[in-house]
From TrEMBL:
Transmembrane segments: none annotated. Gene3D superfamilies: 5' to 3' exonuclease, C-terminal subdomain, P-loop containing nucleotide triphosphate hydrolases. Residues 305-437 form the ATPase dynein-related AAA domain. GO terms for molecular function: ATP binding; ATP hydrolysis activity. The lineage of its organism: Archaea, Methanobacteriati, Methanobacteriota, Stenosarchaea group, Halobacteria. InterPro entries: ATPase_dyneun-rel_AAA (IPR011704), P-loop_NTPase (IPR027417). This is AAA family ATPase. Pfam families: AAA_5.
Amino acid sequence: MSTDSTTTQTSSNGSPEGQRILSHLVNRLLRAEGGSVPVERVTLRVSDFTDLSDQQAADLIDEGEKSGIYTLTRLSSSNATIDNVVPQGEEPEVITAAFGQRQLNGNTDFRILGVVTDSINDALQDAGYTDFRALSEADIDDLAHLTSTLTESRAEAIVAEAKQHIPVGHALAQRAASYYAQRSNPASGVGEARVTDLTNITETVGEPRYLSKGWGAGDERGMYVSDVGRNTTDPVLTGLHILDNPDYPGVPKAETHPNASYDALPVDEDGEVIPPAVPLDPRLQLPLDELIAKKLSRGLVPIRVVGPRGSGKNYLIKYLCHKTNRGYQSIDVDRATEPEDLFGPLVPDGDVIVPRNGAVKQGLINGDTIVINEFPVMQAGAAIALHRLLNEGTLLVKSHGELVEPHPSARLIITMNPPTREYRDSEPMNSATRGRFRSFEQPYIQDIAEEVETLYPQVNGDTEVVDRTTLKRIVRFAHKTRENENWPTLSTRNLTILCEHIEDGASPKAATKNELWAVAEPNQYPEDAHETLNDIL
């Protein structure tokens, strides 16, 4: 194709062919990059798809800006970015072939799959496979030998990879339907809200398993064994007894459990709850699950876990409660929290005033593991009201006139962010209160490979959303953000959200830029990190 014909040839709807190719190239780059694209980058890339020169491409962009095809931001006379585009006509095959899937005569082009050749693509379509969903559900034996080159191993690879290309809307609809069914009235099948009065939950947690099984108290079958992280190859007994009632309402559920909710624990391909990435306490140099479990085994010993947002503090505690069948009750507090919010108010009952139990008091009675988040922001009076519980293991509720001796399985843990510049709203804890806790630090995972191995099963269920290579690059960039206090910090939790955006159809770079923007503080500029992101992704 000559240069002149490139700029004058028109497509079926009358758009110049050069402009059509250019507009669709920009459209794909905007999606891949997650935002503005420098004009210079576009003019350099266009020669990969057509014989337009740099100057001709720049002239077409200028013409397109005037006609509303492109939206530009001009930073200087020689520096501009394209922020938006209206693609002209249908996407040219040369662009589709370079960036992804295209449709042929209503049938899906399976050549986007790694092992599919022209002949295999034709054979699959002749066999009646019209989309990736049908192909992902195909029987391996039915696919094998459709052509002389389509072996059984290739057929297995095709089915596995096809799952990655099923439109996510189908899977999301199935998940939503499953959750809706779980939250529907069994009699009518109609969805309904559920309001639980904490004071009506009088069921207590189960008994230690060693008692119900007739084992000795030191039998390792009846206690939590730390076998994750550094302890994978050399498990450690912790002494924290497993209780015998996994169906107790407060026990954290796996996402496959009939009563699972949105905050259920994710499972791997074998249906087992995915363990947390367990860091070492930086001073004690022991795995946190082991340390916390051993403290919990000592009874109502108050524990404090300090760590940055999204480092997995609550997930680790939920995991321990799940593995030991303990009730987990998470309570978020703030500056307005008062003692009656924790222990319950006095309310009229006919002619008398009676105490009504709050979350902390009722949890102690039932034997739950109570987790109070952002503990230091509470009013001093609310924190001091817990001092007797922290010191002596009994709760004095002055307004109720009651002394509560908690259930023997009850436990208390508080969590907080470190009082650093990034968490300027976090208050340093009163020293008198701080000294009553066994304190541990939960940092972000320091090892990239370990964080990848923890994240991979969480973000990839039956279908691989993010391959290991891409996930490793994303985690490597996240570690860069944690090392630079001037950049927004991407936590492990942020990375799961980031991968959710990828599942929804965003490119990895676009999803990463979006999450950087989402967590940026007012004094931080996500764009400062983009150059490093471009080097990694």
